[in-house]
Amino acid sequence: MKIMGILNVTPDSFSDGGMYIEVERALQQAKRLLSLGATIIDVGGETTRPGATQVNEEEEIARVIPVIQAIATLGCDISIDTYKANVARAAIEAGATMINDVSGALYDPQMAYLAAEKKIPIILMHNQFAIGETPHAKKEVEPVDDIYIAVCERLQQSVDICLQAGVKRDQLILDPGIGFAKTANESWQLCQQVSLLRETFGLPILLGASRKRFLAMTVSESSQQQKDVATAIVSLVAWQSGCEYVRVHDVATTKTVLQTYRALQGLVDEMGENE
Q1: Dist. CA 194–CA 185, nearest whole Å
Q2: By C-alpha distance, which of 171, 7, 172 is closest to 74?
Q3: Which of 89, 118, 211, 247 is catalytic?
Q4: 8-59: per-residue pLDDT in tens?
Q5: Residue ranges per domain, the chain?
Q6: Which residues of the chain carry a pLDDT beneath 70?
Q7: Backbone torsion region of residue 202, taken as left when φ is above 0, otherwise alpha when ψ lies between -120 and 50, otherwise beta
Q8: Rounded to an integer, what distance in angstroms lies between the CA atom of residue 253 and that of residue 124?
Q9: What is the rounded distance in angstroms from the CA atom of residue 150 to the CA atom of residue 176?
Q10: Contacts of 188 (CB under 8 A, 6+ apart)
Q11: Which CATH number fits domain 2-274: 3.10.20.310, 3.20.20.20, 3.90.230.10, 3.40.50.1370?
């Protein structure tokens, strides 16, 4: 499994807004995430938290480009977290190697064509936003009859748009969009259906459950640390289900949980051989 470390260069993200606006601080955080086990740094210049105001392209580009240029010197993979093709293009020219589109390439018609032109991976996230809306998370959501079917239908639209634009299937990564227009129960259900989603589409899956509100149902106290533990456990189960990528804020806890599980599996295997 590849761990994607989140690096928000925004003043208003829900858990780390304003912490990494300065280029040097962002670069040091990227180095830290890589040292802890991340293999991809996901740079975003606009928060998609519920109720957030859309950022114009010029401002978003001004936030992310200096940071991406600095991180590119580290030689790691960099994903640009944006739903705007012009921002993604500028980010790729600055050194980004992946696109992470929370609209699933449905907001900006040029996004799929950009991915095809640049021949780089694109993450297509499920997001049930309506035409004319921004793909930000909704404050209030209503449950749907079958969340899995709803996710598959919308993701199929995203896949079709990309393929029609010339994107190759091996460039596509799917994200069920945990916490976006979904109730807590629906988010839990989708976390349990990673293997089914992978089987349905035959494409790699990314899970982005980190610090989402639905995790509050399981924590013993409402704290960021407790949500990071819950995130790591969800990541472990996702990995067991065939998930190839997880997107997290706390790389260290997720990496520790994965390594501990692997160590236990190795010990069990060794004990079995000795019996």
Answers
A1: 15
A2: 7
A3: 247
A4: 998 755 555 457 778 999 999 999 999 999 999 999 999 887 777 889 999 9
A5: 2-274
A6: 12-18, 139-140, 267-275
A7: left
A8: 26
A9: 10
A10: 214, 217
A11: 3.20.20.20
Catalytic status, residue 31: no
Specify the pTM.
0.92
Distance CA 80, CA 72 (A): 12
Region label for 273, one of left (φ > 0), alpha (ψ between -120 and 50) or beta (otherwise): alpha
Strand spans (E) along the chain: 2-8, 40-44, 77-81, 98-101, 122-125, 172-175, 206-207, 245-248
pLDDT (0 to 100) of residue 93 = 98
Exposure of 137 in the CB half-sphere (CA atoms within 13 A)? 16
The pair of structure tokens assigned to 94 is: 């600055």
- The catalytic residue among 118, 154, 182, 212 is 212
Active-site residue flag, 212 = yes
Going by C-beta distance under 8 Å and a sequence separation of 6 or more, which residues neighbour residue 22? none
Residue 151 to residue 190: CA distance in whole angstroms: 9
Q: Read off the tokens for 113.
A: 């064509």
Look at residue 106 in the predicted model and tell me its pLDDT. Answer: 96
Q: Which of 244, 225, 237 is nearest to 261 (CA)?
A: 237
pLDDT of res. 274: 40
